[in-house]
Amino acid sequence: LSCFKSSPNPVVEDFPLLTLMLSEMNLLIHEQLKRSNVLNYCNFQSTSNLRADTLSDCRELEAMLRVISGRTSSYSVALRSLSTKLTPDDAVDPAWASAMPYNKIPGPSVTMMLSGILFQGQTKDLSIMDMHRIMRDSYGDLVRVPGVLGRKDTLMSFSPDDYEKLFRTEGQWPNRRGMDTFVYYRNKVRPDVFKGMGGLVNEQGESWQRFRTIVNPVMMQPKTIRLYVDKLDAVAREFMEVIHNLRNEKNEMPGDFHHWLNRWALETIGVLALDTRFGCLEKELSNDSRDIIKYIREVFQLTWKLDVLPSIWKFYKTSTFNKLMALLDELTRIVMSKVDEAIIRMENNPTQSSDSQSVLEKLLKVDRHVAVVMAFDMLMAGVDTTTSATTSILYCLAKNPDKQAKLRDELRAILPKRDSPLTPQNMRNLPYLRACIKEGLRMYSPIAGNIRAAGKDLVLQGYQVPKGTDVALASIIMYHEDKHFPRGGEFLPERWLKGESSSDCPSAKQAHPFLFLPFGFGPRACIGLRMANLELEMIV
């Protein structure tokens, strides 16, 4: 540091080293504060364990960094994230000293988890919601699920206040536990394909940020998503013909209709991820398309057994683990062939205008490996979740014909004729459609919640939760509770509309803002948010 103090005019090239030094000193101060139980850095001079010159050095470093960032805006974000504003909230949770220790958090024992005693041996027959209810009824709003067979502990929180605290303190690089089996496959089994990239679900820290920084401007750009309206409209119209041919004399769908929704979802994801039509809505499904749908479903069934339920696969490669690796190999083979076909087609017929380029084309221009992994992950993540969400919404509308009629009236205003197309312009103002989608996702959420590692030492429900502890945001069981959503068991899209609140229809604004987050929150929110909403709006 003395070298930099002697330099009256630090240069841009010094920025990386200066930020590293500042980050290290920030950590040092945090550790000193924690050891000293100092809740306010302003009284550091009275604490023997905290040296005044450490804080002084940090202030000098910040001044140098501001000089540099004033010359180049690209460093301004980094400076803000590294600034050592040691407020009491940033340094130590004021409630930490008086909170109960982590090991006092209630929860089942390892024996109970391994034996299934907690669920009376009924884990195969219980839904996720049933398991969550048993946990909360048995232990309260914060439950410690002990780590077994090489896994860390996981806390389960049933409190929206906890969710807000976790999200607001997650820091620059939010940590969300990935699927260990996927990480193993990509790093150990097929590094030749994935090149050390775990993808957005499985990457953490700086590697996650690098990946996200590349894909964010493409995936989250509204004008990019609008390019797909015509193509998805064509897919949706084909699906209407499928429905017309499937329905019986009572105007009802057959019992295997969800298979056709799977086929529509894969066809749609093929357009979004690869700018390719798979032909999934034709009478005869191709072998590759059939296998993709089948394998994706089986993969998620197996990852539930290996990554969620207790498993010894990290110590002994079980038959279930080997089956998963074989399925991932088959999926990789099929998907990579589709990616290669799309890349060759785009290279032979490049889109001239950058404004008209697809997601895959734009990502290929930046980083070929990122483009490949992103396309693969979109196919993996987009089929089952989209199918489940669509099923939920259509089911709710079918069970509530009055709401369906109200939605139909809104849509007929922009689609006066049977063959009127959906366009980016006429889709701008469809509040009731979007309210129906939100309410369908609340009624039958395709996901059970979210998970985050604590970004700092926190106090949740009166207990100390150390930094890095995984906390599952088990929100799904609260979506139907009247204290959060009055008349929560009813399908009421009006609760999401402005100015519709009344005694007959309570507003969703009464619910905690961090309770219902179907696409997550913050920098680690779902990258496919805009695409998923477009898919759902168009098919409904």
UniProtKB/TrEMBL annotation:
Record has Iron as a keyword: yes
A Pfam entry, by short name? p450
Q: Which UniProt keywords apply?
A: Heme, Iron, Metal-binding, Monooxygenase, Oxidoreductase
Q: Which PROSITE patterns match?
A: CYTOCHROME_P450 (PS00086)
Name the CDD domains for this protein.
CYP24A1-like (cd11054)
Top-rank taxon: Eukaryota
Classification via InterPro entries: CYP11_CYP27_families, Cyt_P450, Cyt_P450_CS, Cyt_P450_E_grp-I, Cyt_P450_sf
Which metal ions or organic cofactors does this protein require, according to UniProt? heme
Q: Which residues bind heme?
A: 526
Q: Which GO molecular function annotation, any one, does this entry have?
A: monooxygenase activity
Asked if the keyword Heme belongs to this entry, the reply reads yes
Q: Which family does it belong to?
A: Belongs to the cytochrome P450 family.
Under which name does UniProt file this protein? Probable cytochrome P450 12b2, mitochondrial
- State the organism of origin: Culex pipiens
